[in-house]
Amino acid sequence: MSTYEDRLKALRAQLARDRLDGFVVPLTDEHMSEYVGAYAQRLAWLTGFQGSAGSAVVLPEEAAIFVDGRYTLQVREQVDAAHWQYESVPQTSIAAWLKDHASQGARIGYDPWLHTRAWVRQASEALAERGAELVAVDTNPVDAVWPDRPAPSAARLAVHEDRYAGKSAAEKRQEMADWLTAKHADAAVLSALDSIAWTFNIRGKDVDRTPVALAYAVVNADATADLYVAPEKIDEAVVQHLGNAVRVHDRAAFPDALKGFAGKTVVADPERAVAAIFEGLEEGGAHVLALRDPAILPKAIKNPVEIAGHRAAQSRDGAALSRFLHWIATEAPKGGVDELGAAAKLESFRRDTGALQDLSFDTISGAGPNGAVVHYRVEEKTNRRIERDSLYLVDSGGQYRDGTTDVTRTIAIGTPTPEMKRRFTLVLKGHVALARAVFPRGTRGGQLDVLARQYLWADGLDYAHGTGHGVGSFLSVHEGPQRIATFGGGDEPLQAGMILSNEPGYYKTGEYGIRIENLVLVEERAIPGAEKEMLGFETLTFAPIDRNLVAVELLSMEERAWLDAYHARVLDVVGPQLEGAAFAWLTGACAPL
């Protein structure tokens, strides 16, 4: 198994033993997570792909890997074209590809704990047109040939105190119970890890960069709950925190427990609960209501305590990032800084706060052409020196008990070209347009996306990712249901209390990348004479935007005023936390245009 070619051959041999003519390998876990524990990194083990979203299909004579526009460059660098076809989504899908490539009568395997029921239905219908069938497996064949597959994490749970959560777990369960009663339902299955962490005010260390624990839960209409988690992960403090209304079971008992709801009405989320959960409930005689997980929206709408925590985390994080920006402005022009060293230095500034629990994702530290790889992950073989007269893109964040941060800055090292300045300024104009937006209650994120793209479009440019994603409170750095995007989401009405990113960008393949990202809070806006309830954004992130990259002549007076006001606010919030040369640098970086 020393090469990815060996692994592909081993999987094909296992499929032959299992009498399968193909198998689908998604990058997820039994909880439909975006970020997964090492034990569930099947796609990376099989192909070498290190991105956070993708899937693969293996047939006897061909194989394909499916990624979206964020990973167009990355997949070609990490996955061998001699063995894998590159497929782009949403332009195509696994179902569509299988309809064209599976053989007549083929049996294509899938793991029912790694796919939604909707996906199973879509793929089954596509294969039926081919005279083929989709077959559920009891044992994942990738696991059968992965000799050193890591075990799931045994890390213990931790209590997330009410002073950070803003609402007790008992209150949350009661609100869910009231919701279940209104839906005439007896129980709701929670399988999304961040939903479970939020509902029970617990956190874990089972997924790198995301403080969640591997568990399942059922919340009942009487406000009691059943939590399914490995026994060794529970200590006395967690038992006391959960209280008598929460019954704790071994996680391994969950599949059989699904069969114990005969005659009951049970809610399961069709987007977040895997096909095996629906099958288990129905096999046991439950009536299943396919409704959204009742934790999703309350989790997304932050309460006043969570909002205050976010502000504190953003202030602390902004000071750490500003120290880093001063450091890199001083050291990078000397020619001795590379991507790995810069990422390590930034993490050290965050660690110096004394409050950092973890990074919120692996830092994207992209020099020159590596900055054009949207979700670039630096490693030794790709590590690049940050050169003079180039752009350096750094996208990073921290996990603090009071909030989760995510911020991107693009920095000119030396003298930028006129093209770099123009395109940076077009991105900035889009960022400002979104930050200044005022919109009626009920507006969807997808309706706002064009605000960030309009200036790039006018120059015949664009970017292949969404403009904004939701962010959790000491939880996932990517949190739904809110998004600002023209594709793959963006249909959720924005509500006061939601936190999203504002991150337009531009990427010139082989040369440089640009992205400007702040987090924003949706807030109510009082407008004299308004005939509708209006909303807008409060910017939460505080760190200077590189003035050396701004083509001032391209900015309107309103845009200049926004940037000057933003920098004045950065100086007010971050300035008192800095001193000496770092403070002097910040004062210059935040000077009015």
Automatic annotation (TrEMBL):
Protein family: Belongs to the peptidase M24B family.
PANTHER family assigned to the protein according to its UniProt record, in alphabetical order: XAA-PRO AMINOPEPTIDASE 1 (PTHR43763:SF6)
Domain annotation Peptidase M24 C-terminal: ranges: 533-593
Classification via InterPro entries: Creatin/AminoP/Spt16_N, Creatinase/aminopeptidase-like, Creatinase_N, Pept_M24, Pept_M24B, Peptidase_M24_C, X-Pro_aminopeptidase_P
Gene3D superfamilies in alphabetical order: Creatinase/methionine aminopeptidase superfamily, Creatinase/prolidase N-terminal domain
MF annotations from Gene Ontology: metal ion binding; metalloaminopeptidase activity
A Pfam family annotated for this UniProt entry: Creatinase_N_2
Protein name (database record): X-Pro aminopeptidase
Origin species: Sphingobium baderi LL03
Domain Peptidase M24: 310-524
Record key words, sorted: Aminopeptidase, Hydrolase, Metal-binding, Protease
Xref: CDD domains: APP
GO cellular component, one term: cytoplasm
Residue ranges occupied by any Creatinase N-terminal domain in the UniProt entry: 7-138
